[in-house]
């Protein structure tokens, strides 16, 4: 039985991908092969990076990609207004279709897998996550269940008819990291899910995080056995995982939460452009920046940027002059 890791990426997230691959190299020590799921065809830099690594490949099963893109299209076509609203916002077809390619992991080369978004760093062993797959078909470790509004349309009157309120408040998860098994969502399950979506379930999907919403729907509606470490580990062992948590302690390029070492850090909500700009030498501050830079330049420390300008915060408010120009309706060139 092959255990492996999938990452969704393209050249836009190149710097984050390199940091993630380096963190996997350090902390997992080649224990698992890595397969990169292509977000789209922008892969020139990714391909060059893969050539340097013996344990990494790019997913190239076009029929599987097409299968899951068609499923995503059909799922959102069942929604009463998604295509219309996305079209008005300038998106043709499914918003962020490439994000739905994470579903290809269910039909990829690995029998059991962990999926990771590219804006993650692995900071500890993941063997315990794979071991949990002996007992459950789907495993996560996050606190998304505290925020259903970014998974489902909580204003939909149909939501609690589709899922009991207790399930919505306890079973939802972040789609940035999860572990599961090949073949879990086979043709029979996919057809069942589409039939339910077409009968009205699609109304509960959340359009602004389409892939996360669909994945949660598939797992919950199919009744798949799920385990969330965040809900089961004791207070003395459970850790956070998001960059939005300000209290993590940094030691030796690792992070700790109340003395417990994080398994992974998710730079969720930070633009990929921010990381590109940092690596280009812009002195922009954001939480746990040094951890990212350490892993990004682990194998090429001489290329790590040396900042000479004043530090500016990634979320700094616009300057007075910028606010005046914006009020006058003048475009600001950055």
Describe this entry's structure for a reader.
A hairpin with a 2-residue loop joins β10 (254-257) and β11 (260-261). The model is unreliable at 329-334 (pLDDT under 50). By secondary structure, the protein is an alpha/beta fold. Strands 3-2-1-4-7 form a five-stranded mixed sheet, covered by helices on one side. It has a three-stranded antiparallel sheet with strand order 9-10-11, with no helix packed on it. It has helices at residues 14-28, 44-51, 62-77, 82-88, 127-132, 159-162, 165-168, 187-198, 210-221, 229-232, 272-279, 289-296, 320-327, and strands at 3-9, 34-38, 56-58, 112-117, 120-122, 138-140, 177-181, 226-228, 249-251, 254-257, 260-261, 264-266, 284-285, 312-313. It has one domain (1-334): Spore Coat Polysaccharide Biosynthesis Protein SpsA, Chain A (Alpha-Beta Complex). The chain is globular, with a radius of gyration of 20 Å. It contains 13 helices and 14 strands.
């Amino acid at each position: 039985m092959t255990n492996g890791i999938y990452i969704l990426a393209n050249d836009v997230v190149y710097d984050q991908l390199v940091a993630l691959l380096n963190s996997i190299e350090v902390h997992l020590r080649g224990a698992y092969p890595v397969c990169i799921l292509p977000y789209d065809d922008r892969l020139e830099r990714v391909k060059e990076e893969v050539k340097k690594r013996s344990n990494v490949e790019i997913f190239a099963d076009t029929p599987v990609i097409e299968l899951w893109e068609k499923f995503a299209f059909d799922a959102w076509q069942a929604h009463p207004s998604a295509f219309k609203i996305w079209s008005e916002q300038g998106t043709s077809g499914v918003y962020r279709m490439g994000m739905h390619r994470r579903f290809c992991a269910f039909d990829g080369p690995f029998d059991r897998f962990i999926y990771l978004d590219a804006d993650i760093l692995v900071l500890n062993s993941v063997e315990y996550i794979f071991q949990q797959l002996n007992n459950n078909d789907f495993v996560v470790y996050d606190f998304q269940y505290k925020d259903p509004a970014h998974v489902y349309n909580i204003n939909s009157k149909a939501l609690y008819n589709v899922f009991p309120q207790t399930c919505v408040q306890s079973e939802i998860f972040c789609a940035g990291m999860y572990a599961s098994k090949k073949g879990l969502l086979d043709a029979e399950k996919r057809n069942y899910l589409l039939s339910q979506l077409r009968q009205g379930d699609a109304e509960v999907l959340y359009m602004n995080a389409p892939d996360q919403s669909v994945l949660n729907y598939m797992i919950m509606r199919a009744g798949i056995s799920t385990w969330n470490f965040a809900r089961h580990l004791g207070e003395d062992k459970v850790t956070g995982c998001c960059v939005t948590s300000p209290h993590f302690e940094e030691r030796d390029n690792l992070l700790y939460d109340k003395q417990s070492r994080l398994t992974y850090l998710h730079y969720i909500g930070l633009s990929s452009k921010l990381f590109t700009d940092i690596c280009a030498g812009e002195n922009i501050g954001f939480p746990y920046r040094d951890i990212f830079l350490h892993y990004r330049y682990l194998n090429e420390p001489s290329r790590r940027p040396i900042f000479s300008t004043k530090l500016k915060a990634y979320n700094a408010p616009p300057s007075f002059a910028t606010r005046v120009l914006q009020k006058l309706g003048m475009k600001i060139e950055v």
